[in-house]
Amino acid sequence: MSGHDSKYFSTTKKGEIPELKEELNSQYKDKRKDAVKKVIAAMTVGKDVSSLFTDVVNCMQTENLELKKLVYLYLINYAKSQPDLAILAVNTFVKDSQDPNPLIRALAVRTMGCIRVDKITEYLCDPLQRCLKVDLILDDDPYVRKTAAICVAKLYDINAELVEDRGFLEALKDLISDNNPMVVANAVAALAEIQENSSRPIFEITSHTLSKLLTALNECTEWGQVFILDALSKYKAADAREAENIVERVTPRLQHANCAVVLSAVKMILQQMELITSTDVVRNLCKKMAPPLVTLLSAEPEIQYVALRNINLIVQRRPTILAHEIKVFFCKYNDPIYVKMEKLEIMIKLASDRNIDQVLLEFKEYATEVDVDFVRKAVRAIGRCAIKLERAAERCISVLLELIKIKVNYVVQEAIIVIKDIFRRYPNTYESIIATLCESLDTLDEPEAKASMIWIIGEYAERIDNADELLESFLESFPEEPAQVQLQLLTATVKLFLKKPTEGPQQMIQVVLNNATVETDNPDLRDRAYIYWRLLSTDPEAAKDVVLAEKPVISDDSNQLDPSLLDELLSNIATLSSVYHKPPEAFVTRVKTTQKTEEDDYADGGEPGYSESPSHAVDSAASPAATSSSAPHAVARQPVPATPAPVPDLLGDLIGLDNDNNGNGAIVPVDILHEGPPLPVVLPASTGQGLQISAQLVRRDGQIFYSLLFENNSQIPLDGFLIQFNKNTFGVAAAGPLQVPQLLPGTSASTLLPMVLFQNIAPGPPNTLLQVAVKNNQQPVWYFNDKLSLLVFFSEDGRMERSAFLETWKSLPDSNEVSKDFPGIVVNSVEATLDQLAVSNMFFIAKRKHANQDVLYLSAKIPRGIPFLIELTAVIGIPGLKCAIKSPSPEMAPLFFEALENLLKS
Amino acid sequence: MGIVFTRLFSSMFGNREARILVLGLDNAGKTTILYRLQMGEVVSTIPSYVYFETCELISLYMLDAAIGFNVETVQYNNIKFQVWDLGGQTSIRPYWRCYFPNTQAIIYVVDSSDTDRLVIAKDEFHAILEEEELKGAVVLIYANKQDLPGALDDAAVTEALELHKIKNRQWSIFKTSAIKGEGLFEGLDWLSNTLKSGGG
């Protein structure tokens, strides 16, 4: 190795970023433009070019529209990661929003809305105000006005208070009366969006706005129409007459080529129809709605699916609309399976005495297809029709019998399952077919089919000569059967015994009861067996009355929705909600309650990293991005039929800045259990004769749990675990028994033990000691100490209004203030710290700067409503944090400091 | 022929724009100077939080104070100046350094009537001079707002800013009134001459 080799370590290549940096600072405009293009290209492929922020922003003030757009695009992407530097762009926004070119004005306003950096939000209000011209004339270009409308909605998401203070909401409402339909549509979209994120009524349609909206409806773009229709569907008409008028104005929308418009119109008409009393009008409307719905089924399969899911809801409410159209729902051989399944569902709903023959022919056909799931569903459909239509039951059964004769295993099993239901629906009518069923007894291998067959045997034991033999054949494998089958076997045997109290059954019942009581782990089975046993041993006659009692007749209510749920889903037609058949709250996290906390959390402190803005624009036909988080337009995901939008063509050439948002962003994982770091070991294996326990108090969904992990490192199985807590400061105690299964050597089990507070409170000054005793059947009692962290007691309702915070702070005497310095703690980022605190239910109230220090105010609440007012003072990046708290219970302060230190240290 | 000459000329001064930063505390008059230089019109700015009431001249343009930056190209004495006017608010001052590379000259603007903050102006000024990247930059100081009563003259401002401490650098100070347009172009004359003679 000679010294010459050092040259390999020094390279003359500078790397991409410095090169780009140099080019961005070039004196030649063309070079700068090329450089920005390169930066955008790098950004698009996922390279981090945020370090070039200032260099790119410096290219912002340019006459060149292309360059400006690129820089804006860059800004939208990186303003979040460089919140401090984002302020450098403010002046350019201010200038651009006054540019004579409306394109540039709109571009600036639109970009401002997309920059979700709280620090500069306030600066951006002035330019926005200029475009909305709250008191003066509006911007004379409709494109700028509509962009401004959308921007207000986005701003509301960042800082609702600011929007209200600035009077933007009023301006937005005024825009509903705008003479340009595009502006009206976007104002409606923005208001609807804001309404969804607010618990107060903000957007209510009055009779005045109603006529404006109805006028704009005919003139605006298809996506604009969707928004207006959605808004109208929430309008409660004053009387039937008004409802009729509205519906009349809207019916032409049913002929629209865009399926989103059609569905929204259907939704709106269905809503208003509730008020219309005249049967003629209703019948007429139903007639009008059928063809557009049918037309939807000639679209692509994906759209068909969406349409079918919606139609499913519609026919539950108003079956008459499609009563004559059942043929449309017959499955085509090349339909995708998900469409077929939905069609079957609707066919069942539409089946009637009039069309049942046709429908049965179809079902029979489907039952011979190759797709197993589909075949099963078809067989089941036949059964459901039999249950639904009494007069057709016989025909249905004969079809089922024909199918059983094919001897295809899964068809037979499925048929038996539905025949059981048919027996329940029409007792003592079709028993003649039992013999046929019994032929295929041996082929049954699915629990549900087995259970159904056993039920039939038990129910009709007196008519089946060899019922005891049949049951006996099942009994051999009793212990291995699934619980469902075991339960049925038990019941069937009891029935058999009661009906034929002969010797054979008597022996059988002994075996079964023994099996089901002594040899099983299943408590359901055991309980049922004991009940039967006791009944039989005390009073066999009473047992007869109970077991062989007449059963109520069933009706087909499978796949029927609860009326109130149906109402809600109907009001959400044409959204994801109506496709999932779930109310929006069930799958979207950003509904009002959670929204509120989220938004307040970051009132001053920046951005929730994960929540993508639900604000979308209804820009052009090219960007149909879904709008609202709680009810995104499902149909909107589909490629839009290319209808040229009647919008000035200046729309077309802007970069689709608004497209960046997700059309399906609604599917946010609702609640991922927070799996923290491994639990601290409280009882090491060396102390516990091989039993190791790790445990910690945790808070989940407002409830305190003791999270425990038992590891059995001993040589013997351990079982019968019990736990006990000593008196402690908060009176923490177990809310229920500890549920830990038997632990074999070398295995472990974890459990969440729900806890309650204030059970047995230890007197004396507060401390963090939690003494726990754990015992099991094999070992002596183990005692160990754990620490109570005050953090788990902070409740979710600890947020205070600023004013309340101030008042409480003032009202508490100074003696209630305790402070402490943490020299070892470094705050590197205010946002990160606030996030960390928010997780532990310490809620951000306000922030101020004092010299170079950041002062943060937070609130928290421990049980019994005792508030903690927290003041944190720190210099960013420099070790040292001062924490002062004020609370009616200052004696808790040491506990608080300890908890805080542990939290921030990690 | 004409093209050849242009090329000759341009090669003499590199066919480039001289990059000039206009710095100074907030409300010193930077943005007004920038637009005064560019348009020769009186421009008065209104910072978003301070309301001007003493403004004697009705402005033709009402611009917001720069929160961020303004950049304009000014042609003077055959030199193209690319003038960067950076916002002077405390919150923005830390980011001045992003603009330091490749700078030929600095115009430091001082509000001569704001005697309270002259100390801060001085500190900021000397901090800038310390910057490695600005080592070769020429410094022009505008003792601005001479039209206001109580404004210090150039000698007093020189004293207050401790300009005598400047070493190894060409500098000059001019009394100006951006609002009246006085003194600005004298300063620019000096600047263009210095730059041409290779000072930059």
TrEMBL record, chain A:
Entry's localization field: Cytoplasmic vesicle, Clathrin-coated vesicle membrane; Golgi apparatus, trans-Golgi network
GO MF annotations in UniProt: clathrin binding
Gene Ontology BP terms: intracellular protein transport; vesicle-mediated transport
Its membrane topology: Peripheral membrane protein
Domain Clathrin adaptor alpha/beta/gamma-adaptin appendage Ig-like subdomain: 675-785
Ranges of Low complexity composition bias in the record: 613-636
Start and end residues of each stretch annotated as Disordered: 593-643
Principal location: membrane
Pfam families registered for this protein in UniProt: Adaptin_N, Alpha_adaptinC2, B2-adapt-app_C
UniProt keyword annotations, A-Z: Cytoplasmic vesicle, Golgi apparatus, Membrane, Protein transport, Transport
Record-annotated Beta-adaptin appendage C-terminal subdomain domain positions: 794-905
Cellular component terms (Gene Ontology): clathrin adaptor complex; clathrin-coated vesicle membrane; Golgi apparatus
Top-rank lineage group of the source organism: Eukaryota
Family the UniProt entry places it in: Belongs to the adaptor complexes large subunit family.
Task of the protein: Subunit of clathrin-associated adaptor protein complex that plays a role in protein sorting in the late-Golgi/trans-Golgi network (TGN) and/or endosomes. The AP complexes mediate both the recruitment of clathrin to membranes and the recognition of sorting signals within the cytosolic tails of transmembrane cargo molecules.
Assembly description: Adaptor protein complexes are heterotetramers composed of two large adaptins (beta-type subunit and alpha-type or delta-type or epsilon-type or gamma-type subunit), a medium adaptin (mu-type subunit) and a small adaptin (sigma-type subunit).
PANTHER family on file: ADAPTOR COMPLEX SUBUNIT BETA FAMILY MEMBER
The protein's name in its UniProt record: Beta-adaptin-like protein
Organism whose genome encodes this protein: Rhododendron griersonianum
Lineage: Eukaryota, Viridiplantae, Streptophyta, Embryophyta, Tracheophyta
UniProtKB/TrEMBL annotation, chain B:
Record family assignment: Belongs to the small GTPase superfamily. Arf family.
Coiled coil spans: none
Cellular component per GO, a single term: Golgi apparatus
Keyword Nuclease tagged: no
Residues reported to bind GTP: G24, L25, D26, N27, A28, G29, K30, T31, G88, N144, K145, Q146, D147
Main location: Golgi
Domain of life per record: Eukaryota
Function comment: GTP-binding protein involved in protein trafficking; may modulate vesicle budding and uncoating within the Golgi apparatus.
GO MF, any single term: GTP binding
Alphabetical list of InterPro entries matching this protein: P-loop_NTPase, Small_GTP-bd, Small_GTPase_ARF, Small_GTPase_ARF/SAR
UniProt keywords, alphabetically: ER-Golgi transport, Golgi apparatus, GTP-binding, Lipoprotein, Magnesium, Metal-binding, Myristate, Nucleotide-binding, Protein transport, Transport
Lineage: Eukaryota, Viridiplantae, Streptophyta, Embryophyta, Tracheophyta
Any Pfam family matching the protein: Arf
Organism: Rhododendron griersonianum
Localization of this protein: Golgi apparatus
Name of this protein: ADP-ribosylation factor 1
GO BP field: protein transport; vesicle-mediated transport
